[in-house]
Design a protein that fits this description.
- The longest helix is centred in the middle third of the chain and has 26 residues.
- By secondary structure, this protein is mainly alpha-helical.
- The chain has a two-stranded antiparallel ribbon with strand order 1-2.
- The chain is about 60% helix and about 5% strand.
- The termini are far apart.
- It is globular, with a radius of gyration of 18 Å.
Length: about 230
């Protein structure tokens, strides 16, 4: 019996389009339109999950190669303000998460709903992160951190790790460090190092990601030494 939710494909297509449009706005430095796209997409995803809760519980299996779960694409943000470092000079993972939506009627199954929620929470967190850096406001850092934490919580429920976990943990660690929450920062970077060392996830093939994350691991994983430098 197929327990996938029988939805109009336009419903999932609209959410994918909203997310990807938000990524384009974010790359152009248009934080407010980007935030609105991600917020609306997340609200619609939550509504769909609530309406079809029973079907999603029944369809709790995972398959990384499932055709009904579009792959996550890591899109480099190269536009206005996207090259700056964190408030304390730390490396910020500046790749927004898009999803391939090329005319495939995706079933809204458990795997898809989970992965889409991870993507939207991370992207919404990235909006607040960039605004925090631009306006030097710690309150926005806290909003970004909460969204990253929720995204990480969902990633931990998956039997496999997506490369997006590295961006989530890196940015969580950087923000905790900037907020002088050194113990939490160290836990994030220890988890990040553990994922890299066990080989379950590899960094995307971009030199800035390799250099930035490795520098964060070197200097921010040991907060007392970094703070004294």
């Amino acid at each position: 019996m197929n327990s996938h939710c029988a939805l109009n494909p336009n419903q999932t297509q609209r959410i994918l389009d909203l997310n990807n449009e938000g990524v384009r706005f974010l790359d152009g430095g248009q934080h407010e339109p980007a935030r609105e796209c991600f917020k609306v997409a997340l609200e619609e995803t939550t509504q769909m999950m609530s309406l079809h809760r029973n079907e999603l519980v029944q369809d709790g299996g995972f398959s990384e190669s499932s055709p009904s779960c579009p792959p996550i694409l890591h899109v480099p943000l190269t536009g206005v303000g996207c090259q700056v470092k964190g408030i304390m000079g730390s490396y910020v993972y500046r790749y927004a998460l898009a999803m391939n939506n090329e005319s495939i009627a995706y079933d809204f199954n458990y795997q898809f709903s989970l992965r889409l929620t991870i993507v939207l929470m991370f992207n919404l967190g990235l909006v607040h992160h960039w605004r925090a850096i631009q306006y030097q406001q710690s309150s926005m850092l806290i909003k970004a951190l909460r969204l990253y934490e929720m995204s990480w919580g969902l990633l931990q429920r998956s039997p496999y790790m997506d490369p997006s976990a590295l961006g989530v943990l890196n940015n969580m660690g950087a923000i905790n460090y900037e907020l002088a929450q050194y113990d939490q920062s160290q836990l994030c970077f220890e988890a990040l190092k553990g994922i890299l060392m066990d080989g379950s996830v590899t960094l995307i093939e971009e030199q800035d990601v390799h250099d930035g994350i490795l520098l964060n691991l070197m200097f921010l994983e040991e907060p007392q030494a970094a703070a004294a430098a």
